[in-house]
């Protein structure tokens, strides 16, 4: 399995559906959770696997970095991504020690917390650009 690359800008290598950096994440009650700060993508294909948000920060205080599997999120329209998970539940999710070097064990813990299979979904090479 290829390593993950940390992307902080909507670069041209990303599929259009994966260009969500700067969008806002909402829960099932349409309440704003956080702004999407970055994504983790396959380093070879640039398919997005995880969204990165920051919860609980205020002004200069750093909040908690949370990694969300893309499978639990859905892009609704320009600037809006929705999830069934509540902000309070996300605060309890495991987080990687270093977001730029997420290990397979950390990734499996994150996926397990959200009730997903331990392996990332596989994508076809020429899928939706």
Question: Which helices and strands occur, and which strands form pairs?
Answer:
Blueprint (H helix, E strand, L loop, with lengths): L3 E4 L16 E3 L5 E11 L5 E8 L8 E6 L3 E5 L2 E4 L3 H4 L13 H10 L16
Parallel strand pairs: 2-7
Antiparallel strand pairs: 1-3, 2-3, 3-4, 4-5, 6-7
Description:
It is a single chain. The protein is globular and about 35 Å long. It has two helices and seven strands; from the N terminus they run βββββββαα. The protein has a single domain (4-113), classed as Alpha-Beta Complex (Photosynthetic Reaction Center, Chain H, domain 2). 11% of the residues lie in helices and 32% in strands. The protein has 129 residues and is mainly beta. Strands 1, 2, 3, 4, 5, 6 and 7 form a seven-stranded mixed sheet that branches. Mean pLDDT is 87; it is low at 125-129. The longest helix has 10 residues, at 104-113. The protein has helices spanning 87-90, 104-113, and strands spanning 4-7, 24-26, 32-42, 48-55, 64-69, 73-77, 80-83. Strand 6 (73-77) and strand 7 (80-83) form a beta hairpin.
């Amino acid at each position: 399995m290829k390593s993950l690359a940390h992307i902080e800008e909507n670069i041209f290598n990303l599929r259009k559906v994966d260009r969500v950096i700067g969008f806002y994440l909402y829960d099932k009650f349409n309440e704003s959770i956080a702004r999407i700060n970055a994504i983790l993508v396959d380093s070879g294909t640039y398919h997005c696997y995880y969204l990165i948000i920051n919860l609980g920060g205020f002004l200069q205080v750093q909040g908690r970095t949370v990694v969300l599997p893309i499978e639990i999120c859905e892009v609704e329209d320009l600037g809006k991504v929705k999830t069934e998970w509540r902000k309070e539940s996300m605060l309890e999710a495991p987080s990687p020690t270093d977001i730029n070097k997420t290990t397979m064990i950390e990734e499996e813990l994150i996926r397990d917390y959200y009730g997903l299979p331990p392996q990332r979904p596989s994508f076809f090479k020429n899928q939706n650009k």
